[in-house]
Amino acid sequence: MSATTDLYVRLLAAWNHRDAEAMSECFDDDAVMIGFDGSTVEGRTKIEGHLAPIFKDHPTAAYTAILRSEHRYGDISLLRADAGMLPPGQQDIKSETIARQTVVARNTNAGWRIVQFQNTPIALDQNKPARAAIYDELQAARKSGDLLEL
C-alpha cells in the first residue's frame, strides 16, 4: 500500500471510529476539507473543531471505499476513490450518500499529510445507470470484502 493510500485509509478509519483528533492528524496545518454538503473548513485545528461536535452529537455512518486511482507528482500525490456510507446497524450502503472522494497530499517533514480532501456526492444526473452501477459495485464490494481495509 502506498503512503497516500495508507493516509486515506487512516482518514476513513478515524471517521469510522468517530475520532476527530485522529482524523485531523491526517491533515497538514493549512489543509482544506470540503464536506459532502459543500461546507469548507481550513486548517487542521479548525477541522478537528468542526468534526468533534459531529462525532459527539450524531451517530455517523461508516465509510466503505473503492480506490480508483492514485498519481504521484514528486512530493505531491492525488488519490481518487468512490465511497459509500453504512448507517449504524444497517446492512446496506445508503444510496443517497455515495460520494467521489479526492485527496491531495504532500510529503512533509512529518510524513504524508492531506492538503485538500473533497467529498463530492455522486449524482450523475445525466447518467443514472452509471450512478446505479457505482452503487451496486460499492455494495457488492462491501459484501465480498473487496474494499479498502479500514
Question: Could you characterize what this model shows?
Answer:
- With 150 residues, the protein is of the alpha+beta class.
- It has a single domain, classed as Nuclear Transport Factor 2, Chain: A (Roll).
- Helices cover 33% and strands 37% of the residues.
- The protein contains 4 helices and 6 strands.
- A 6-stranded mixed β-sheet has the order 2-1-6-5-4-3.
- A hairpin with a 2-residue loop joins β3 and β4.
- It is globular, with a radius of gyration of 15 Å.
- The relative contact order is 0.20.
Secondary-structure topology with pairs:
Layout: H1 3-16, H2 20-24, E1 27-34, E2 40-42, H3 44-57, E3 62-73, E4 76-86, E5 99-108, E6 111-121, H4 128-144
Parallel strand pairs: 1-6
Antiparallel strand pairs: 1-2, 3-4, 4-5, 5-6
Keywords:
150 residues; Nuclear Transport Factor 2, Chain: A; 6 strands
Question: Concise description?
Answer:
With 150 residues, the chain is of the alpha+beta class. It has helices at 3-16, 20-24, 44-57, 128-144, and strands spanning 27-34, 40-42, 62-73, 76-86, 99-108, 111-121. The longest helix has 17 residues, at 128-144.
The structure class reads: alpha+beta
- The CATH architecture designation is Roll
Mean pLDDT: 93
Side by side, the strands of the main sheet go 2-1-6-5-4-3
